[in-house]
Write a structure and sequence with these properties.
alpha+beta; Phosphorylase Kinase, domain 1; Transferase(Phosphotransferase), domain 1; 2 domains; 3-stranded antiparallel beta sheet; 10 helices
Amino acid sequence: MSAALRPPEGLVAADDAGGAWWVERETFAALRGAGWLDPARIETALDAASGARGRAPVAVVPMGATALVLRGVHHGGWLGAALGRGLGSARRPLAEIAATARLRAAGAPVPRPAFAGAWRHGSVWRGVVATHFEAGAHDAARWLREASTARRAIESAARAIRRFHDAGGWHADLHAGNLLVRDRDGALDVLVIDLDRARVQDRIDARARMAQLMRLYRSLVKRDLVDRVGPRGCAAFLHAYVAGDRALRAALLARLPAERRKLVRHSVLYRWA
């Protein structure tokens, strides 16, 4: 593991059970005392978790009066097929929890990090990222299917993603399933989740912003949710995202023709999927 990779403010390093762990400073003693820095216990919890084929297992486990969300970290594509749940190094889960901590500290709407760990499993590493459970939160698809909440969910998601981008967040796979929506006293609150391979940059330019926004739009097409949003919903999303910034609006719309061509190409693939 690169010596340049160090835990950011708010996380501390540990070497429990021969692995590499970065743990939230505030709850380090409680997490260690509860036995969650234990690869065997984590693997048991993840093995019992169910999920879509090819997706990383996710388990919700008790932690004191609340709970943790454990997500296994592994490669996708041909490398995932070759390694299974294995990783080539400890870097990936540690980098994710570091990005989560940095973005949260910068004001981005992301989950509160608990810990990340990686441990040897034969010739490979296995890894996990844990965040604090958000009670009452569901992915954006659920809220979009409810007529009474769709418009508020759209606008709340736009404002959350704007904050994420303004904090320097670059998401590797922004889609409707990676937005958690929760109702807080009648106001919808949105979190950007699953920050595997996310980056924290000094600035996210209009090209990168629009590419991510259109990736989100394509996920609605793929999930047959785009009609729930409709042209008015798209306009409301853009209005909430730019928040009166005319220069940003113009820069985003200048990228629309190229992104529409990309949408056509992807739509052909969706029909064959």
